[in-house]
Amino acid sequence: MPKMIRKGDLPTKTCPVCNRPFAWRRKWERDWDRVVYCSDRCRRSGKPSTNAAS
């Protein structure tokens, strides 16, 4: 039986568009190094936000 990994122990990254953290997902298992954006919406936007605090 595989060892269970807690959600808090998964690697995280910060989206350059919305500046929010997002966690590793099983569907990104093979290409986690190439994942940059947290969602399709951020990927389509593509430009990093300069005023995320507003």
Automatic annotation (TrEMBL):
InterPro entries, sorted: UCP037205
Pfam families in the record: DUF2256
Name of protein: DUF2256 domain-containing protein
Species name: Rhizobium wuzhouense
Lineage: Bacteria, Pseudomonadati, Pseudomonadota, Alphaproteobacteria, Hyphomicrobiales
